[in-house]
Amino acid sequence: MDRRIALKNMGLALGYTIATPTLLSLVQSCNEVKTVDWTPEFFTKEEGNILIKLVDIILPKTDTPSASEVNVHVFIDKFTNEIEEEVMQDITKLSLNHFIEKSLKASGKEKAEDLTSEDLEPVLAAALSVTEEEEIENMELMIKNTSAASKGENDAVAEDVIKYSFAKNLRDKTIWGYKTSEYVGENVLAYLPVPGEYIGCGDLNELTGGKDWSL
To answer: Are the CB atoms for 186 and 64 separated by under 8 Å?
Structure first.
């Protein structure tokens, strides 16, 4: 599917509620970062390199830039560091390390720095390959056992649930960060920096060609 079509039809799959000025400030700071000079704020350098590979697996370069080309990895790192609560930070860190361990085991490699996109992609795909019923069950279990998961009490949260929760949250944040990036906002979504006539109720296909508003 054409990514432009997918993005314009995709709503936020996240349960986050953030004040608009905070989010805009976060996005703006991401736009100013050069990936080649990037040093993660929350993740380690090693984890950050894995994060770059993962976001590009989720949204690779096609007719639009890849996720890392619009600094989605920077957005995720800053969001985790500056906005997420401590319990969610702990879950993010633990689940990412768990994912890296699984990828190392599956690939037969010893160091995370040696993992390639080809090593990571099947592990990510497997974590997301669940039925709708399993998805609902996994999320309910994760919500119910958030505290246990943040402490690494794996006996309280099944391995498959942790893998799915990490993969889904990463996918959701990647899509969110991509949609709020400057490039996508101006070139893929409907962009009108100086609003004109206010139309409270109108057909989206007629007003924007079916695209979501970027602002």
So the answer is: no
Instruction: Return the DSSP state at 211.
Output: P
CB within 8 Å of 142: residues ≥ 6 apart = 149, 157, 161, 162, 165
* Residues 64, 185: Cα–Cα separation, whole Å: 12
Average pLDDT over residues 130-141: 69
Residue 154, CB half-sphere, CA atoms under 13 Å: how many? 7
Please name every residue paired with 190 in a beta bridge, in sequence order, or none if there are none.
213
* Helices and strands in the chain: count of H runs, count of E runs: 11, 0
- CA–CA separation, 178 and 39 (whole Å): 20
Cα–Cα distance for residue pair 10/179, rounded to 1 Å = 9
Tokens 């976001």, residue located: 55
Per residue in 162-188, pLDDT (tens digit) is: 778 889 889 999 998 888 877 655 665
Residue 75: both structure tokens together: 């957005």
